[in-house]
Design goal:
Helix content: over 70%
Number of strands: 0
Distance between the termini: 51 Å
Number of helices: 5
Structural class: mainly alpha
Largest sheet: none
Strand content: under 5%
Amino acid sequence: MNTIQPRNDPIFWATVDLLFSFVGVSIALYPVIWIGNALLEFPLADTTVRILVGVLAFGGAYPFVTGDWSLGKLGEFTFAFAGSTVFVGLLLAFGIAALDLQFAGENPAPQAAMFALSYLLSFIVVKRRHR
């Protein structure tokens, strides 16, 4: 009887690493590029921003596939960034509500502050974990 052999194909695993690193770099880059575009009063269309993120993420995935940079640290940063974005967003929302502050709906400054704090917190969490 024939049994299915597990894949031990380096091209397959390099492709899996490319997909994971592409997703991680996309998650890390999209808020920066979107907020930068918003702060510049949207000179780029939304589809152009997505294409730019895709191209930069594809190029940025290369060091993770070749092993120069740690794919594990990228994954930890991605999860820390998602968690810290929720945490900082809730913290800022409660702070804004408690202080009764009001912002215009098209003002990207609160979102820029939230993402800046989220990036900083994520970097600190990953850096402290890998001392």
